[in-house]
Amino acid sequence: MDSKEASGTVRKPGPKPLQSSSVRTQYLILYNFVSMILWLVVLGRVVLLVPMVGFGRVYQGAGNFTKWTQTMALLEVVHSAVGIVRAPIGTTLMQVSSRLLLVWGIVNNFPFVARSAGYSSMLFAWGLTEVVRYGFFVFTLSGYSPGIISWLRYNTFLILYPLGASSETWLVYKAIPAAKKFRQEFAWALQLILFIYIPGFYILFTHMLKQRRKIMRGKQMEKNQ
User: Fold this and answer.
1) Looking at 144, 161, 173, 197, which residue is catalytic?
2) Which of 5, 27, 168, 202 is the catalytic position?
3) Mind listing the pLDDT tens digit of every residue in the chain (225 residues)?
4) Residues 58 and 46: beta-carbon distance below 8 Å
5) Is 168 labeled as catalytic in the residue annotation?
6) Annotated catalytic residue 222
7) 189: Cα separation from own chain's centroid
8) Residue 83: which region, alpha, beta or left (left: phi > 0; alpha: psi -120 to 50)?
9) Cα distance between residue 135 and residue 155, in whole Å
């Protein structure tokens, strides 16, 4: 009998490396890794540009890159729709479409709104959120679960989601007068979107809270065993 077993102290097994070599798993690891790097670039540009050139010129240095990085997230809607991932398609579509509205419908058409601090705070919240989220998926899909990554994944959103949502609504609000000059219906649509943001934020935020409670409960049970 092993001496550790005889003494009654059995070492818990550590994290297991990737066992699955399926095309699906490898694709998701690659997708999440590339997405993490892209958002790290966005985050890095914002952090560097704000102290160097101020809020008013962040769009020039990060706007187009952010626009196409976010557009790539349409693949996540496809992933959910065809069953590659188990994420609810409703919440996925809601989050992706709201961000596409910001980068294409608002900032792309009315770039003056990006001169406000709200644009930079939005990109900071998006960037940090996505670096943590995609990094978390890269690790878990590879068979690892570092405690710090899990903690960041299920705790940073408590600050970053409200920061991102408030920044987004501010940009929509700032764009309404210009949208009215462009087309009255566009302005009405943006006003409607502002009202939708309240239940939309509630749905997404409570969805994350439920996930957090589930994960925290599971970790607590592991500690008690």
Assistant:
1) 161
2) 168
3) 444 433 343 344 444 444 446 999 999 999 999 999 999 999 999 999 999 999 999 999 999 999 999 999 999 999 999 999 988 898 899 889 999 999 999 999 999 999 999 999 999 999 999 999 999 999 999 998 788 988 898 899 999 999 999 999 999 999 999 999 989 999 999 999 999 888 888 888 888 888 888 777 766 666 666
4) yes
5) yes
6) no
7) 25
8) left
9) 15
